[in-house]
Amino acid sequence: MELNQMNHSWQTQAAEYLSDSAQMQAGTQEENGPGVELALQNLIQAVWESPEYRRYQHIRAKVHELPQLEADIHAFRKKNYQTQNFADEHALFDQVDELEREGAQFRKNPLVNEYLDAELGICRLFQKINWELVLNIDFDLGFDAGQ
């Protein structure tokens, strides 16, 4: 898919989401109050307009034009996810070490490196949003989130 088509695609999806969300808002305003729904819509819009998200979408479109590279990136990310979440604790060190070696080699491709960096940028934005909510809303986690 061409870059302009991909950008148009996510912008169309964004517009559809906002339209659907506005229709759903009428039913949920009584539950959550109009302020939460409106703030959520504004947050989503702000993320879509953020440099991190725009960069990610731009690089994602470039990678999408190279199906084998895209498949290789997804396979690497899947392996990374599985290592982080399902690794045998006895083999974890070896698996992490292998993944780091593989990742260093894989990142020698500038487009792969740029894609993974852009993905990390959007993930950090999501983490920041989540942590700001956790730290600023009185919700008992059972531990000090700052330590």
How is this fold's topology laid out?
Blueprint: H1 3-32, H2 34-49, H3 51-64, H4 67-86, H5 92-106, H6 110-136
Helix pairs in contact: 1-2, 1-3, 3-6, 4-5
Description:
By secondary structure, the chain is an all-alpha fold. It is built from six helices and no strands. It is flat and about 50 Å long. Helix content is 83%, strand content 0%. The longest helix is centred in the N-terminal third of the chain and has 30 residues, at 3-32.
Question: Sheet with the most strands?
Answer: none
Structural class call reads mainly alpha
The rounded Rg comes to 19 Å
| Percentage beta strand | under 5%
- Continuous helix count: 6
Helix content percent band: over 70%
Q: Number of DSSP strands? A: 0
For the structure shown, list the relevant keywords.
147 residues, mainly alpha, 83% helix
Quick overview:
By secondary structure, the protein is mainly α. The chain has helices at residues 3-32, 34-49, 51-64, 67-86, 92-106, 110-136. The chain is built from six helices and no strands.
